[in-house]
Amino acid sequence: MIAFLIRRTLLAGFTTFVISIIAFMVIQLPPGDFATTYVQLLLGFGQGSGATGAILGDPAIEQQMREAYGLDQPVVVQYLKWLWRILQLDFGIGLEAGKKITEVIGQRLLNTVILAVGTILFTWVLAVPIGIYSAVKHNTPADYGVTFVGFLGLAVPDFLLGLALLWIGFAYFDISIGGLYSTAYINAPWSFDKFIDLLKHLWVPAIVLGTAGTAGLIRILRNNLLDELAKPYVVAARARGIPEWRLVLKYPVRMALNPFISTIGYLLPFLLSGSVIVSVVLSLPTLGPTLLRALLGEDLFLAATIVLLLGLLTVIGTLLSDILLVIFDPRIKLDG
Amino acid sequence: MTDTRDSALLSINGLKVHYPTDEGVVKALDGVSLDILPGQTLGVVGESGCGKSTIGRAILQILDKPGRVVDGEMMWNARESGGQTLDIAIQNPDGHEMRAMRGGDVAMVFQEPMTSFSPIHTIGNQMSEAILLHQDKTPAEAREWSIELMNMVGIPNAPQRFHEYSYQLSGGLRQRAMIAMAISCSPKLLIADEPTTALDVTTQAQILDLLRKLQEEQKMAIMLITHNLGVIAEMADAVVVMYLGKAVESGPVDDIFHRPKHPYSQGLLRSIPSVQAVGHEKLPSIAGSIPHPFNRPSGCTFGPRCPSFMPGACDASVPRYMTLDGTRQKVSCFLHHPPEEVEEVPSDD
Questions:
Q1: Arithmetic mean of pLDDT, B127-143
Q2: Residues in chain B whose beta carbon is closer than 8 A to a beta carbon of chain A?
Q3: Which residue of B has its CA nearest to A236?
């Protein structure tokens, strides 16, 4: 087990290294370099403010910046410098905000993780019992009802659902349900009240983001479980006199959950990047809109950082699901 | 009629199990009658699809959906243990009585020892589960009893095997573990559904020996469901021959093997390859094939394949399943009780 953990962690480290190269290539792709873009951008709207405007015109500053980031050196050296700074948690400066990227991303990353975890919880809490019920009572009116609602959930685009909820909230209840915090708490330090306030706001995006996932999960669980319910070990357990509900939960449900565990790895990055449109619609302070703006504005250090983070999360998620699978399914050989 | 019904542990009469499907009703059991005597082994033989496995599942009320018992009775005689006689056929499958009976008074051994264990739970976990459910034991006692049972059925290294998974055991050991689990609550009836079909020949013999040994020690009745006549000859006290959801002949094992009355039983016995056979003669087989479930022949369902088919009789009405005078065999065939006689008074000669 320990050898397995070490091997997988080393492998994950290597994968992350490859991802960092790809992220760095993102920075290198557009014509010109970071300094050019930065200066041009600041020149664009920096005219008014005297102090900045004065510095910006100066080619010396541009040159200084090039040296600081090693932009006049070979690509490999640039990459190594960039990597070295990242290992020290210095991701560089975001163009638009003119702030350090750690500052730009920090709070948003936390929000994103909170939203992702909330959505996953919402999805599982709803999908697992419904999926089980739907499979055990398959081909009954209740099953058909769940299936119908499930297909609706799959078919409606989530941003549309978000818009509809926004409109309903505004038109009928006269409340704005966008965002993750009330105005009073946005910049407040963490407290119990802020947490409660967060919960009050969290359910709307969790529903919007989770509906399609829930519907899909119900379908998958139902079909997995239907396969398992017909297996001889279920009949054998029944023949031992085990009460039906206990039997279903202990044997086939455990088996049917295995495919879920293996998809945890994809769930995290999907929720982070898949929520871009919804986050824009519901004005959620998450990473999604930041990534979108960074890409549109060629804010490449920021974009690369987010790409790197998404990659890292995928690697961590996959590692987690691999470890969980080994714990949950004894058939998986550790020395495979 | 003999008085076996009163002394029987389980007496099944006219049991019908139907599977309603979109295409029509599949009559898996179409009026089966049989008696299982305490401490004896009843062999149930027949071709694939004759309903022999369905009987086992009907007794435990664990029929696959949408199958259900539509008619007949299954009288479980609990007088010996001071209880009332219970008609299993009218019990609620999810009710308390049926659950107590499953794995308690009646246990089952399945054909596929590989797939009949959950692959992600240990053997010990699944054994203890049944023990804890039916007996007043603590988990530690259940574990101890499981290991003792595993020793009893000849599983070496039982304390270690207790913590292993089914895929870590060989086929023979798995079936032994299955049997250990089945006898864990001292059942009065053990239903063995093709217990040796998935095993190789040497292991088959060992498992049959084990079953016989346990039967002597535990004084339990065994219902041995198989298509292997050799297994029946070796194990059974009495035999029921089934065809298309009906019992066509039954009786003591020697009588059935040496003096089969029904043309189907005769055909089955003729189709066993003999060690003494000389030359390369073609093995006799029963002509034709099993009719489609939705298109059963009228009259005697074996009629179209029967070498002694009598037009006007066999396709006109269904022969009665009755004891043949002067024997202990029951048979349903017009060769042995012509239709006229059955319609009137049962004959005395």
A1: 90
A2: 57, 60, 62, 64, 94, 99-104, 107-108, 110, 112, 115-121, 126, 129-130, 133-134, 165, 167, 178, 181
A3: B116
Q: Per-residue DSSP letters for B294-340?
A: TSPPSSSTTGGG-TT--TTTTTTSPPP-EEPTTSS-EE--TTTS-HH
DSSP state of A55: H
Chain A neighbors of B123, CB-CB under 8 A: none
Considering only CB atoms, A254 lies closest to which of B108, B120, B134, namely B120
What domain range includes position B231? 4-243
Structural domain count, chain B: 1
The mean per-residue pLDDT over the stretch A217-237 comes to: 88
Which residues touch B284 (CB under 8 Å, ≥6 apart)? B267, B270, B271
Is the pLDDT at B347 greater than 60, yes or no? Answer: no
CATH number for the domain including B237? 3.40.50.300
Rounded to 5°, angle at Cα A44 from A39 and A48:
110
Q: What band does B319 get if pLDDT is binned at 50, 70 and 90?
A: confident
Pick from A111, A90, A6: nearest CA to A305? A90
ipTM: 0.82
Residues of B in contact with A235 (CB under 8 A): 57, 62, 64, 110, 116
CATH number of A108-328: 1.10.3720.10
Q: Do A254 and B129 touch (CB under 8 A)?
A: no
Task: Read off the pTM.
Answer: 0.77
Please indicate, yes or no, if residue B182 is contained in any of the structural domains.
yes
Q: Is residue B41 part of a domain?
A: yes
Structure tokens at A294: 């960074």
The answer as to whether B86 is a domain residue is yes
| CA distances in angstroms from B187 to A58, B53, B100, listed in the order given | 95, 19, 11
Q: Where are the domains of chain A?
A: 2-87, 108-328
